[in-house]
Structure formats: structure tokens, C-alpha cells
Amino acid sequence: MMKRFDRNLSRPLFAALVAVAFLATLHGQAPASNAHRIAVFGSSVANGTGDELGKEGYTGRLRAMLVSRGWEVLNQSRGGDNTLTMAPRFAPEGSPAPNTRYLLPVHPRYVLLGLSLGNEGIANVKTKDEKDAIFKQFETGMKGFITRSRENHIVPVVTSCYTRMDFTEVEYEYTRRMNLLINSWDVPSVNFLGAVDDGTGKWAKGFWYDSLHPNASGHEELTTTFVPTLFDALEKGKPAPAMSTPPGFVRASGAQAPITFTPGETMHPFALVLRARSQAEGAVAAVEGTTLEARTETKKIERGNRGAVGIEETTLSPGRPFSAVVGVTGGVWSYRAADGTTVASTVRADANWHTVVVSHYTARGETLFFVDGQLAGRSSERLQPKRFVIGGPGSAVHGLAPSSQVDLKDLMIYRSALNADEVAALRKGSMLQASLEVYAPLADTRLATGTALENRAQSLSYATVEGAGLVHLDK
Length: 475
Hints:
Elements: H1 7-26, E1 37-42, H2 44-47, H3 57-66, E2 72-75, H4 83-86, E3 110-114, H5 117-120, H6 128-151, E4 155-159, H7 169-184, E5 189-190, H8 193-196, E6 208-210, E7 213-214, H9 216-223, H10 230-235, E8 249-252, E9 259-261, E10 270-277, E11 282-302, E12 308-329, E13 332-336, E14 342-348, E15 354-361, E16 366-371, E17 374-380, E18 383-390, E19 406-414, H11 420-427, E20 436-440, E21 464-465, E22 470-473
Parallel strand pairs: 1-2, 1-3, 3-4, 4-5
Antiparallel strand pairs: 6-7, 8-19, 8-22, 9-18, 9-21, 10-15, 10-19, 11-12, 11-18, 12-13, 13-14, 15-16, 16-17, 19-20
């Protein structure tokens, strides 16, 4: 039997609820029901400009990726904003301005800060002093947003600076510097530059809508740089990654696939970083997946008063299975590309530890191979990795056999490519956390098949012991 609603009892209860809601709003505290709400707070790229498919750019694609995990993604961005013009939109002072997207009133638990040096005006000033001032203005503004977010119980995440067609080598250098600086902050970040950079600070061919914005394919590439479980890891309180100090490592001996990692969502640009020591010929790591075929065509797009204009767009489709291998050939560290060609370094395989990096830019179709911070060579290829193998060649049917003995530590897998500056920073001991999905120190003592290895990255992913042939050593 339905009970009658008692208006007399409801009035004080209603008044109390209103008071609680008012106080929560006043102090910027999000209701518990908004615990899984993410607000994207940025400028035109964050707002989806250039996405001719109308999917709201990387913001809409991030929403589609996270919805099944229970996350809500709001778009609170506005075209043209920089750190100065976005600041008043953090929260209204007095009556809210009409048709304005503010941050605080939507009560997010997380905020994705999406600005870049382009709108800040780095290309519009000429002298070094002027550019340094813009650089400092951006740094100060971004740190201000981070501080204000935390003061209002909102967890900040930052997207890195990206490309523009009007950037010269000078602006490109400032962009790379800013991204290294962001990596040093105590805040999670996402590496956009490693997805769409053509190598000179401009958009990769076929991935831009106009000089300032990516097209739909460009927005798609930006989206792949998000670690899918980043917000889940933050929700669980997982701390920022820190370099491992214990001396332990693992030794693999003649194994095909002792350690593996399989990405849970589509991965395009990536970087595989590994410290290894071996004096034996053979494979020490592999990347397996599918090559991507690129088709570039001109699309006619309506641009308001300008009428129909043509934009060049590159779309990617699956090709053939591939296996690329890192190892020792002819006594030096080398990379065997997807087509079987070899990029050989000049670094000898000896009793010393060496840092090898495979950095892949899907959009521009190029892999860079670094050893000990130095570029050994390049390979033209477009890859979609589906499994990483550490300690052996995996399922490769051509190329290197397993190394008879290799010592391994500090495995890192990024969802974005790393440029030469970033590789050099890693070599010097810096922790680059942007788009880092796996950081396994490989100091684990338990190495039974099926064991999930320690992962210090802010993600819920992990590399797994898949096969035999591993032992833990302390020195």
C-alpha cells in the first residue's frame, strides 16, 4: 500500500537538503554522485574544432572510450582561449555571463586542462625576451589552474602542448621545453605532441584541418595517447610514478616470450623503453601487431562564409601482421623493423647496462631507434601494436632467435612517441609520466607464470610473466 507524502515532515527535510547543496556549491565541493565526472577545460582543440565528423574532437572520443567504465565527460571548452582568457571561466564572479562554459558550477571531480602555447601567442612575438615572457606566462597560468583546481577538491590532469603549421624551429623548441617542464610537475599529463608531430613542430601530413587544428583523423590520434585507466587509477589513489631504487632485475635465458603486455584499448603512437645488459646475440624484446595502410584524399568541407574548401585527410586501415624486434646483431644493439630491415647502432653489447628506446609515430609513419640517448636510425612504417614481448622475440618467425642471456630492468611503455629531447631526459634519470601506461622496474622476486608485475605508472594495466626462463637477481 502506498504511503501518503507528509508535506509537514518534508519541509524541514527539504530545507536541510537545500542548505547542504548551497554549502557544497559555495565551497566548490562536488556531490558524491559526481565522483566520476571529468570536465575538459580548454580552447578550440579541446572543444573539437576541426573534427569534420562532428564527434566533438578528442573530448567526444574520450567520452566514448570511458563511458563503459562509468565515467562522465563534459566539454567546458571555448575556442580562442589561453591562460589569461580562460581564467575568468573557472568560476563566475557575480551573475554568470550568458552562454559561457564555466568549470566550477558543473562540479567535476577531475579536470582535463587543454591549452597550448599556440593560443598563448608564442609565434606572434619576435624576440627571445618576448618568447620567454610568453613561455613564463603559460607556465604561471597552468600552475594557477592546477592550484585552483586542488583548492576546490578537483583533481587536475594536463594535456601537453602540440603542433601548429605556423611554428618554426624556434616555437618547436619552446613547445618541447614546455612539455618537459609539464612532465616535471606533480600532475598527471597526456603527451599530445608525440601523436601528431611531423618532426618539425607542424601537424603530420593528412592529420590537420587548418593551420591551428587537427581534422577528425588528427583528433583520433590525440585520443589514443590517453591511458585508458588513468582516471580509474587516480580514483584508487595511485601515486605519481617514481623511479625505482632497489638494485634487483630479472634475467631471461633463451626464452621466446617470458614477459608480455597487451594493451586494453587501441594503441597507435607508442614508445618502448628498456634497460638491458647482454653480451649474447639474439632478441631481447619485440613488438607485435598489425601494420596500418594510409590513404590520403582531399575532402570538401563547408566553412561558413568561405564556402566549400578542400582539406587533406589521411585515414588508416589494418594491413598485415608484423613483428619488430630489438636485440643484438653483429655485436651491436639493433632494431629489426616490421619489413625486416635492420637499423643498427654503433653501441657495442657488453657488460654494461644500455637504454634502448623504440619510439613510433603512427601519424607520420616513422619509428625512431635510440640507444643510450642517441638516435641510431629511423624506419618508415605505420604500426598498431597489440602485444609487447620482453626478454625474447615472441612469435617472430623471422629475424633474431632468443638471446641466450639478457638482464632486464626499468620497462616503460608509453601511449605516445618520445622525441630526442625526451629520450635524453630519460637517459639522465628524469621520470616522464605523460601517457605512461606501464612502468615495471622488473625487480619482482615472484616470477611464476601468470604473475602480474609491479606497475608504478598511473594505470591499472600491468605486464605479465607469460613463460619460463626468468630469474630474479640482486646484483
